[in-house]
Amino acid sequence: xxxxxxxxGFLPWVRAGLAGSIARVDGDPAAAPRAAVTVSVTVDAGGDxxxxxxxxxxxxxxxxxxxxxxAILRVAPRPGEVDxxxxxxxxxxxxxxxxxxxxxxxxxxxxxxxxxxxxxxxxTADEITAEEHAGADGRLPAVTIASADAxxxxxxxxxxxxxHIDGFSPAAGETLASVxxxxxxxxxxxxxxxxxxxxxxxxLVPAFERGRLAGLREPIADTVDGLAAAxxxxxxxxxxxxxxxxxxxxxxxxxxxxxxxxxxxxxxxPRIGLTPLxxxxxxxxxxxxxxxxxxxxxxxxxPTATVGAWADTEREAFVPALAAMLNQPAxxxxxxxxxxVAPPLWGRWQAAADRLDPAPAATPAWFHELNxxxxxxxxxxxxxxxxxxxxxELMAEAWRQVDxxxxxxxxxxxxxxxxxxxxxxxxxxLTALGTETxxxxxxxxxxxxxxxxxPGVAAAAPLTTARRLGLSPIPDGAMDGRIRxxxxxxATAARRAARVAAPIRPGGRAAAIATGxxxxxxxxxxxxxxxxxxxxxxxxxxxxxxxxxxxxAGEPSAxxxxxxxxxxxxxxxxxxxxxxxxxxMVVTALPFRAPSLTTFAPPPGGxxxxxxxxxxxxxxxxxxxHGGPAGGGALPGGPVGGGHGAVRPARPAGGPWLPPVGTDxxxxxxxxxxVAGHVLGVPGGSVTPVPVSTDSQVVLHTGALFGxxxxxxxxxxxxxxxxxxxxxxxxxxSVAATLTEQLHPERTITxxxxxxxxxxxxxxxxxxxPLEQVMAAPEFDAPMYAPLRELGxxxxxxxxxxxxxxxxTVVCPNQRFIEAYLLGLSHxxxxxxxxxxxxxxxxxxxxxxxxxxxxxxxxxGIAADPESLxxxxxxxxxxxxxxxxxxxxxxxxxxxxxxxxxxxxxxFPDTIVSAxxxxxxxxxxxxxGTDTRYPVFTGRLEPDIAFFGFDLTTTMARGDGTQLGWFxxxxxxxxxPRFGLDxxxxxxxxxxxxxxxxxxxxxxxxxxALAALRYVDVTAALPDAAGIVPGSADPPITWGxxxxxxxxxxxRRPFRVAIHGADLIVEEP
Length: 1069
Prior knowledge:
Largest sheet: 6 strands, antiparallel
Number of helices: 25
Strand order of the largest sheet: 1-2-10-11-6-5
Structural class: alpha+beta
Helix content: 10-25%
Number of strands: 35
Shape: extended
Mean pLDDT: 78
Radius of gyration: 52 Å
């Protein structure tokens, strides 16, 4: 095995399976149509095991009908390539390491030579005399070659086949069997000398006669030897089947190394990057800007270039006249006159300025400096011209970016209308509501609004309004809409009723008890549960079941009426009933005229009860039979006062009690029955004492209401109240204030819209009104130096034509040029956007990228962040011109650009360009270190100029007394393995000194002999290898020894050239 480097290992052949047991050696004259292998099989017959030999015949070339193209990994040159290097060998690479020798009916000889069963032939068009398509009978496509001179020598085919193993390390104990499949492959080379600028066809064809006949579907006699060659050296008109083919064309005779060696380091002259600008007659209405041409600098300029100053006297005479011309449109608008067309004020929208101030200290500085200088105005005009030339494609991209913004703006306009309409409703209605009304009206959104933390309430995070009210004594449902509707209905009816006291005419239960008539009592519903049936629908009783806590004795209410929520929050109405007792006080529903709830005043003697339950009756006279428990006690008689705040005395009866429901007083005309929790006053009149039985009377309930109520009432009456959560009152005023603030349309509608709309990353929008329409500013990331090339290379690099061919030099970027040019692009693009009714305010920075930074790498070799490599900051943020780079970190003054003019980078555009810090070698000379930097940006000027911007200054590259400077390295790209020899260097027949330096010229006596050479003869006298001294890392190899040695010799090593910065930059005096 030949191992040229740690990464590659070459083998002259590989066999697998039974093929390794073939007895015939390649070159053995004993003829045989196929390879045969004898194997021994042990047969056990009746306990007597005996070996039985069996001869197996292996498939050979005569059994191969075709080759699956999927077996091929790679070919070179690429199919259709038109600029292939003529000094390199065509090749085909297979996935299986044994494929080239798999069907060869022999084993290798003692020298490790084994011919493959197929070869790679490369021929020109005139060497093919006929072509045939594939036949319906399975015949392969075929070609007829004029003579065997156009085909490889089959007796040397072993030299052009080898197996390849990646990273093979026998020293580490690795064996071929242990090598993973993806690290193994095989390869066929075509040892043909290619001529420059010539078209070739490469073909895989059979190497043995039996394979040739099989591919052509011709009869194969057993007398045909399996190792018989498909053609002889003197054959003519050779008809061959083709397993696979492709075509390519060679380029000029020059490889990477040859072109790289032509390069010469030259410092850039002082005139590179400068061009004169005649401004002696800028306009008939203007004086000369300068009597002699001003110097305009390009985007790239020599480090030693000197730009002459603009004479102060001429500038001071020209700028005011120019300002007067440029300010005419603004003057006309101010005077109310017709608009005037004048030359543009570049960047007027980005600067928010419409006049040029000739004063040197005018701000913004960049705006006045650029518009007052004819050179900078010229550069900005270049940007405008580029936009005019590419307006259609630019607008297409702008519309693509704004997709969705137009629809979003329509949504924002509607949101603004909704916000203003809602603000009127908010101001006129919501803010005028009282605290309890506001809480009730806003109940549907309580679960969406957070309240700040409340004292005495343990919570890990702010609570919603609904949750905070749930932790207060206010029961669930107290703000239900049904309660609100019931209260609204009763209040409306009460307002219509007369306010005249009327006598009470007790009826229903009281009358029945007095007369001894059997009656049906009312069963109360379970507390905290919405009752079914008409009762609940009528007044929504279940929302506020509970106990009323009267004021203490001697404390009549003199305060303003309190609302229902306030009473609930303060604990005056309880949501859990007190335990039921066998006796109690009967409170019947009494008719009254009342628009609202007020407090109860105690009787003169005060209440002896802990509490009293209120309950309202079902609609009077509904005819429903009811049943329920009747408590003991008596309904006191005597006069009852009427009017607001009237007091009805009650007799203590032992304790609180769940009242019966179902009394049916007969109200006077126009009277409204009482509602639970709504008692304003007691009408005047008198009540006849009515004895109340202590027995509970229950009659059959014909509906579902009584049965369910009775069951639930029994459950409540038989058990004590279960402990509930710890409740704490809430500050209703504070809650109402928070709700009022959170429900402001400025917040609700704005948050809703902004939460649904998400701007693209390239849109920067910060309007004073959050619902203001978005003024989009499209961004174009393409490097804009490229379209500038269309206007002429001299705008980018004036004097580029004077740079000699094959030159490497250093220039510097001109930031003032870049900023003026990009400003002109953005200015004109703003006009285009306005013309096409694009949603923009024309203040955007549409172009920020001048150079091509797509391949930029960090020192660690990873892709750089594109945003850190933009060439300018947003234009409205600019300071003085030339100081507005967007690079992070900003480049140092004197940043350099490596410029290469020559054929090298045209032929090899994938060349790796880098800068490597110099270090001192063992011999005291500068050599390459390890600190490497890659280009920040790149560019090309056709046909033969390429440039590379580095984050280095000219001083750093040159080096000084303390630093050794930097090398600039041009390295050939290390692609997949390539094979060949150095290009023709004219050293015909010269003795070789190293295998890596052998050229095609050393294989021939003269130029004519090289031109006539078709395929390399490994047995020829040339090349002369007597002078080659193997290096310490070179294996012992010999030209033409076997396939692996030949592969190692022909392997192309990547070449690189390094040039120190001191050779490129003139030292400053």
